[in-house]
Amino acid sequence: MIQPLKTLQSSLSRLFGQMAVAPSRLAEASTAEYQFGAERSMGTVGHVSFVGAGPGDPDLLTVKALKALQTADVILHDRLISDEILSLAGRQARLVDTGKTGFGPSMPQSEINAHILAEVRAGNRVVRLKSGDPTVFGRLDEEIDACTAAGLAWDIVPGLTAASAAVASIGQSLTKRGRNKAARFLTGYDMEGFADQDWRSLARPGEVAAIYMGKKAARFISGRLLMHGAAADTPVTVVANASRPDQRVLATTLADLPDALTEAELTGPALTLYGLAPREAQPTLQTVLQQEFA
């Protein structure tokens, strides 16, 4: 039977009204509404959620991640997590800084693993909060393996990785029809493994790569790619503090990358986008330090 138009409009209005959730109500999510993917029995069974905090902008936090923060007893977080995101934790949550930063001082991984196990065994709802997406260069497997070996329950709440935020900030995409059918995610942190990359194929025209923690390895990256045939004027964009108020964007070329980074003195975590330049007249860029493409 076909409903009258007004009746149908009324039904849709009620449906979407039930689906809409105001940000203020999300901040009041209760334990009963979110159980970390597993039921707790009499408050004695602990659980750990490996949660992605995204690149830093709290507006890019997922709803599921927010619920996890609101209901956690303990939050073990990396140093790169922004204060704005940590402020969303429930009042009952105890915050523990694990001090994880690229090339900086940090709590040893074995100690982090032990801390996770101790808190879960104590019956706590634990959030292991990682910058970006925990599945991308987050040493996630080591922590999951420790939990699995101890017979403890865990789940993963994915987050927005820095590469997505960085490429969006320059008005580009990681893949484009007719340009590249794949994009590589690399890390400049592990130089031993980094030296074994397939530089020849990456040096081909049209290739795109997102390089995490690549500032210190910039001269090595530039040299290797040029040595394997990459064009000196290949565009390279470095986005520091992607999505945050202090975001800075450095547009340069492969040949000029090391010196450009030295002159720019970028601070904070940076994502290097090889093969991409900011789209012309992109209005969302907060700061562009444009180098001469010559």
Automatic annotation (TrEMBL):
GO terms for biological process: methylation; siroheme biosynthetic process. It is an enzyme of class 2 (transferase). Pathway: Porphyrin-containing compound metabolism; siroheme biosynthesis; precorrin-2 from uroporphyrinogen III: step 1/1. One of its GO terms (molecular function) is uroporphyrin-III C-methyltransferase activity. It holds the Pfam family TP_methylase. The keyword Ribosomal protein does not apply. Its EC number is 2.1.1.107. Transmembrane segments: none annotated. Residues 48-257 form the Tetrapyrrole methylase domain. Belongs to the precorrin methyltransferase family. This is uroporphyrinogen-III C-methyltransferase. It comes from Pseudoprimorskyibacter insulae.
